[in-house]
Amino acid sequence: MKRLLSKQLPTKRFYSSPSNSVVDLTILDCETTGRKSTFHRIVEVAAVRYQNNNLIEKYSTLVCPTTRVSPDKYVNVDVFSEKYYSKDTQSVTNIAPELLATAPSSHTIFPAVRRIISDDTILVGHNLPFDAAFLIEEFLRAEISDISACFFGPYGLYNTVEEFEQEKKVTLSNERKQFLEENSASTGMICTLKLAKKIMNDFEGSFSLSTLSKVLQFPGHETGNYHRAMFDVIMTQHLWVHLVKQVTKRNGLPKTPPIKFFLELSNTKLSVQDLLPKYF
């Protein structure tokens, strides 16, 4: 995988940064044991993080799901049980339960993941709300109360802290609430699935990551290692770069749109044409 990362991650500029500021961007993917975030678990997570187009960190690991049974004791979830991790799901991820049994425990992994998804970062992923819902559940299970700012505000999963507290039945500290109220509008989530449907609105095929990667001939797509986290991160990044270029090229823009353009495009009902006058 290191070879794939070094040779196949895009290296050119793929978004513009406001003058005198740093744009922190993390492209992430999770593989899970199923589709219900409150019941199923993350079994693999990968991320690459950039600041102003410079790669500063890459991270990938399998995860052994654990459950807390006392203040200082965690036990492994039975990933060999069909109820938690069906054979159908295993055939999609290609991650055998035997691999998870010896993987790092989730309560030790997700503090590291939270550090990567810092309060400054903008999170990018394909069908990102799915991954985000699982991440938040894993953070809460690991007793991480300072949930990343990108999940809140106009471009996040929750419009307000109160909405999050009511749904998850948790209470954030007053200091954390104030921080999120003051800073969440400057970060957020960008879903490449939503962007693709708006930018490639003349495309008639499936908008799945595997289909788009094959049709657009991204480097490495032919290996077909889809539904493994780092491979999907790499394909998502190629798709993100392609979509940014398409907006610029199709509309004859003098420069790449700012990151805020893509935050709005991903998180509102507005189209590319609706947003162009605001930014150009």
Plain-language structure description:
With 280 residues, the protein is α/β, with parallel strands linked by helices. The chain has a single domain, classed as Nucleotidyltransferase, domain 5 (2-Layer Sandwich), CATH 3.30.420. Helix content is 41%, strand content 16%. The strands form two sheets. Strands 3-2-1-6-7 form a five-stranded mixed β-sheet, with helices on both faces. Strands 4-5 form a two-stranded antiparallel sheet. It is globular and about 60 Å long.
Q: Number of DSSP strands?
A: 7
Poorly predicted sequence stretches spanning 5 or more consecutive residues: 1-7
Let me know the average pLDDT.
91
Largest sheet: 5 strands, mixed
| Total count of domains | 1
CATH topology: Nucleotidyltransferase, domain 5
Strand content: 15-25%
* CATH class type: Alpha Beta
**CA-atom Rg in angstroms:** 19 Å
Level-2 CATH architecture: 2-Layer Sandwich
Which overall shape is indicated by the principal axes computed on the Cα atoms? globular
State the helix count.
12
End-to-end Cα distance, whole Å, is 40 Å
Task: Report the structural category.
Answer: alpha/beta
| Adjacency order of strands in the biggest sheet | 3-2-1-6-7
N-to-C series of helices and strands: HEEEEEHHHEHHHEHHHHH
**CATH superfamily, please?**
Ribonuclease H-like superfamily/Ribonuclease H
Amount of helix: 40-55%
